[in-house]
Structure formats: structure tokens, C-alpha cells
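Re: your question about Gfo/Idh/MocA family oxidoreductase

S., sorry for the slow reply, the queue was backed up all week. Below is exactly what I fed in.
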Amino acid sequence: MSNENEGYGLSAEKASKEINAPKVDYLPRKPKTYHPKIGIIGCGGISEYHLKNYRILGFDVVAIADITLSKAKARRDEFYPEAEIYDDYKKILERKEIEVVDITPHPEDRVPIIKEALRSKKHVLSQKPFVLDLQVGKELVKIAKENGVKLAVNQNGRWAPHFGYMLNAIRSGIIGRPISIDFSLQWDQTWIQGNPSFENIHHMVLFDFAIHWFDIANAFMGGEKADSVYASAVRYKEQKYQPPALASSIINYGESQVRMAFNAHTTLGEEDVTVIVGTKGTLRSRGPGLNDQPVMELFTEEGHVKIPLEGCWFENGFQGTMAELLCAIEEDREPSHSAENNLKSLELCFAALKSADENKIMIPGEVTMA
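Result:
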């Protein structure tokens, strides 16, 4: 028997040597000397993570506003006892000494607040999803530029330890150009059962949740324009909630592909895996959940290494978004999570939603509304 096919189907034993971990700066970076006064507008559930992490980094939050004053008072008393509280956000915008505002309400309520804040010469961190209409987003970017202020989006996944490491490893050229990126997530989101805020979102997975993955895919690909998006969403009869629990998406680029697979109804055996194969190496992160990714694996021609990661998404992420905005202001540059950059992420997401609804391939940028 010929041995010409010997080894067929078997991977060559490459990268078997253990190497030292390359230096990759992935933790949030604080500004050196810029310590502005910050105002928070909106005290919904997510504001807890904002304020908790701002306090950890020593950021100077001096004002908190919510239409329900008792909510502002509760957040103030827990995190920033010296801050002033208001039931009218315009009181924050009138304070000249406040240079940065964090605006957290839902998109419909948030857009007019962002406009007023930008015209009041305030730098803005907007909650995600940034907008529901790309044209509205472009208008906000234009207003920010006209008023000489920065507008960033709270896409905090970019500073999750595993995503942050991968993003900066790509930027450093460690694995070369990304060829394929695979996201595979199985998690339990059955806690939304009976909660209309989530049950009424038809694309709860592809929109409310996966916006982080469309954004980090955009970041991994360096903002490269995608050629097409195909997505699907499936509901099955045993589900405990209304929105489709199963979703997937394929994003095609000129010479690369991003693939996403989601199951938001995994009550047993949750897992979250990300794999990036580049022209010079592979990065892999695996853990029981998005907030628990303790080790990064790196494979190159020189060998392989397992790299322990510091922190977690709900700490690093919320620290990173505000810290990067402040660093960008200090260094007079655009923040990496600028609204203009985030519009490219929304192009991917909006195309995926339309694709799932119509079972058609969509071109990013041609679908302008969620």
C-alpha cells in the first residue's frame, strides 16, 4: 500500500514549543493629568456598573440626574455622596465646570439629550446601541465635530480582558492579518422570562446582545468594509421566552470571514469561545461565560503559550470606555470607540437584522435602520 497519503487528515505537530508570552497592553489606560468633572444622565440598572467602576478609577463624578429623583439619590448615596442630584438633566448641561457627560437612557430618549449636550460643548459617552438610524448617528457625529467635542459609545466589550488582549495583539501584528474569526456562545438568558423590556425585543439576541460582537468584529477587522452579511434567527417551542433564542451570522470580507453562533437558552453547560486565525498565528479564548475568560492561548510558528488574563468584562469594560474617552480628550485625538467608528459596527448589525427577517444576503450600509 502506498504511503503517499500518510498523514492525510492529521495536523502537523507545529507550535509544540512553549514560548514566553509577548507583551500586550490590554488593561484600561487612565489619563495622565486630565481629571475633568463628570455628570451622569440616567440612573437605570446599567448606571450601577458605570458609577462603581468610575469610583474605582477615581473619576470625579459631581452630578447625577434622572427623571425619577429617588433613583438619582440612591446612586449618589451609594457611589458619590458629594455629587449633586437633579430630576432635570439640563441642570447638568448648564454647569460650565462639567466637561464630560455619560448619557445612559434608551436610544429614543437619548438622542435629543446627546444633541443638547454636544451643543453645550460637553464631551459625551453614549450608551449602546448608539442609534437606531444611521442617518441620525451621522448627524450626531457632525454636531460633535462642529462643536469641537468628542463623542464616544459605551461599547465596553472592547475592554473585556479576552477581547482587549486579542484586539491589541492584532494591532501589534502578533498573529498577522485576521483570516477567520469565530464566536461560539451558549449561555442561559432565561432570566428575561416575563420581563417586557426584553421579551418585546424580537431580535433580543442579534440586536440587544450581539451588538457587542458586531462591534468587536469591526474592531478586530480594523474597520475594514464588509462585503456582505447573512444572518438567521430561530425560535423553538420549548423556549421559556418569546424572542428567538438561536441566532447566527456570517460576515464576508474581501479575504476574511467572521462567523457567529449564539444559543441564549443553554441552561446546562454554558460556554463562550472565541478563535481568531491570522496569517501568522492563532488566538483562542474559552470560558464558561463572557465575564469569565481566565486564559488566552496563542499559537505561532515559534510555539505556543497560555496567558492568564486580569480582570473581567464588567470591570475592565466599564472602566475602559470612559478612560479611553478621557485619554482621547487629553491627547486631542478621536477615541477608538468613537461614534463615527461605531456606525460601521451598526452597519453590520442592521444588515444582520434585515437578513434574518428576509432570509437574504445584505450589504452593510444599505440597511440604515434597526
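The first helix runs from residue 47 to 57. The chain has eleven helices and 14 strands.

Happy to talk it through on Thursday.
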